[in-house]
Amino acid sequence: MNPCAPAELPQVHNPKRLFELRRMALLDQPPERAIDRLVRMTARLLKTPVALMSLVDEARQFFFSQVGLPEPWSSTRQTPLTHSFCKHVVERRDKLVVRDARLDPLVCDNLAIAELGVIAYLGIPMVTKSGYVLGSYCVIDGKPRDWSDEEIELLTDLTASLMSELELRDLLAESARRERELIEARVAAEAGVRAKNQFLAIVSHELRTPLTAILGNCDILLDRNDPVIDPQLQRDLIQTIQRNGFRLMSQVGSILELTRMDTLENDLKLVPTSIHTLTRTALAEPMREAEERGLTFRFDSTLQDLPPLFMDESAYLQIVQHLAGNAVKFTDHGEVRVALSLEQEPIAPDRPQDGSDDISAHHVLKLVVEDDGVGFVPPVGMSVREVVTQRGTEYVVELVNAQGDLELIGPFNPGDPLLNRTRGGLGIGLALTQRLVKAMSGSLQLQFRPGVGTRATLRLPVTFARSGSPASAPAPLALTQTQTSTYPQLASSKQPTPEEVRPGRRPQSPVVLMGEDSEDIGMLVELYLRRAHIELELAHDLDELDKRARAGRHRAILIDLRLLKNRSPSWLDDLRRCGVTCPIVALDAVGDGERHGIDLSRFDGVISRPTGRTDFLKQLKSFLTKPSAVDEP
């Protein structure tokens, strides 16, 4: 066995030691005057030609400070570990005393003997307060030398002084870093406060305006001193109230969506969808607004006959409505163009070939929304790059790139406050759209020219829905403000026809029991149902509803989720055990169930609180098709 054969160095490669070494930011740094002065003094006191402060990492030793090294080592300030005595100080965690390296079994094969002229060596470990050895503080002689106890003690004291200097340096660096962080945090907080105040000013404007319209029109309708109001004027006033009511609900919904931004990816629910039809649905309102403003709105699609795709309908609707709605909002004249197509990306060369016949694995849905408006106004601090096109210089923002990275827009950073105040909107739609696109693994790019227009390009990876493969289908669509859940036991039920009514029985109006603590909502629902020949029985609290429900005369039971926030989840099970067989339906108001921690799966379905008669009745009637005990003779 060769006594000079190299051994493994577990301490040198200790990850925690290396982390501490890099944390102290000493490697590859220029010399510092205070350390150089101490190194020169060390060489003079110990009467050696060479003195080094040597830092040892996993591959080399770096000389933070040195005196007396020959070239090229004096300039490069480092050597590989094959030339290092100091690595043994790190490994031993103790001093290394070498009289004649040529005769020492530990270092006799070290290349520093021939190339650096190292014969005698004395090194002391540089130990941090946390106990890690950074390297060696050492002196070197070019001839054999017996190191005295006094010299060893002197170098030990000098090493302690060096470590005190390094610890002071580290404390000063940490203090400077924390001061920078405090300054950055203060600047960010001040910017956040300004943006939030701006946002609140917009919210105040956006909420007060429709409220003023609603209350003002109500005053006119309720003024008893006014002569009989012309029917057309009455209709106009009511339509104004309705329009502003929907506007308020949209604004409140946008604010509530802020609370979901961090969980969007987990909330996505995919269902087979006709993407052409869904896109037309999303564009219906922007088209209507464009018509009212005298704009041309074009929708070009090549996907009319495309098989169903798996898609989160709610998320897709929000994205398309925001992009198209903004295009209309910020266009005063000209047109808005929307193009829908499907692209096929090339198969990645490193993709494993598993024999799958899934033809959609590399398909991308592409939606382009282009307008002739004022051009996108980027929020402060957003990265914008210039590109030269046939139309001239344009500006591009990658809101979500292909890698899923965000050019982050905060929910309180709505861009140009003047535009938002004059055009309407809370300025949070873009932030929400970003996160929806990211959650759907898509990309979103805005290309714009100020005063000329904006082009938004959305790309979403899509998968075709396979017929006859229910096991492969994702979970059903998440319930939203205007959607109704689908339940197999209800979907399979058939609406009785007049011929199926038993002879001798007179058809009666169905009775619906509703738990609702708002008198206004209760009166509104009663008016809705009366026109549909449905009788409403109202309970103002859960105890009253429980008592009425046990009578067994109802075709459906509606429960405002807010009544259940302090009630045991087993309450519904107890109700069913008492013989209640009709559908029990949750009456939700944009996330009440999630906010109050209520398990919606315990209900037979969920519908939104009433916002419009047609939509509410459509949702309710889907639950009245199920025969219940009241139909039995």
Percent range for helical residues? 25-40%
CATH homologous superfamily designation of the domain at 270-345 and 363-402 and 425-466: Histidine kinase-like ATPase, C-terminal domain
Strand arrangement in the largest pleated sheet: 8-10-11-15-14-13-12
User: What percentage of amino acids are in beta strands?
Assistant: 15-25%
- Unreliable stretches covering 5 or more consecutive residues: 1-7, 347-361, 404-424, 467-507, 629-633
Q: What's the overall geometry?
A: elongated
Mean pLDDT, nearest integer? 78
* Protein structure class: alpha+beta
How many beta-strand segments?
A: 20
Put simply, the count of helices is 18
Major sheet size, sense and barrel closure: 7 strands, mixed
Distance, first to last CA = 102 Å
Domain Histidine kinase: 202-464
Biased composition (Polar residues): 480-496
Organism: Isosphaera pallida (strain ATCC 43644 / DSM 9630 / IS1B)
Protein name: histidine kinase
